[in-house]
Amino acid sequence: MYSDKEINNLIICPKMITKPPKKYLELKYGHLRNSFELSSETKKFYCYIRVCNDFQEDFSIGLIYQPNDAEKLTLVRYNGLHGEHTNPDKTKINTCHIHKASSKCIEENLKPEKYAYTVTNYATYLECLKIFCNDINIQDNINDYFKFHTQLSLL
After folding, report:
1. Which of 46, 58, 62, 111 has a CB 3.0–4.6 Å from the CB of 82, allowing a cystine?
2. What is the spatial distance between Cα 141 and Cα 39, in angstroms, rounded to a whole number?
3. DSSP string covering 94-107
4. In whole angstroms, what is the distance from residue 1 CA to residue 107 CA?
């Protein structure tokens, strides 16, 4: 069981890229995909990027914590426009949003990151990726890995 403070600390702890993303997004099952691995001291993390090939405003970028002795935990995932999301309290979201794990959702045996909140600081995959990398505290120069001036291209 994770407290909200532990979850927040996992999200914001300084991280370094240990396995870089591929140079290009790979098309698989209708989505452009990539992933990379991170570490922070003794902690391991996994990041994924998914972008709908037909509607590129539909994307998801997530951070998963991989403890050595327990199940993995999705800490956050940043989503674009993918249709309506309903929170556990029945509020509905139809815009870009961020899912964040919470102790309450874990206690209620829901998906840990079931709750989401709306955001207005990104609309595209690349805008989101910049914000995501900053929010999860990647210490590497992300411009060494991602080309932000070219839509959906990676170095």
Report:
1. 58
2. 15
3. -S-EEEE--HHHHH
4. 8
| pTM for the full predicted model | 0.91
pLDDT at residue 148, as a whole number: 57
- Amino acid sitting at position 76: V
Closest CA to 128 of 63, 74, 44: 63
Amino acid occupying residue 89: D
Check: CB of residue 33 under 8 Å from CB of residue 26: yes
Residue 63 neighbours by CB under 8 Å, 6+ apart: 11, 45, 46, 47, 74, 75, 76, 77, 132, 136
First to last CA, the chain: 38
Distances (CA, A) of 151 to 56, 62, 143: 10, 19, 14
Question: In this structure, are residues 132 and 122 in contact, taking their beta carbons and an 8 Å threshold?
Answer: no
pLDDT in tens, 103-155: 999 999 999 999 999 999 999 999 999 999 999 999 988 888 887 544 444 54
**Predicted pLDDT of residue 155:** 45
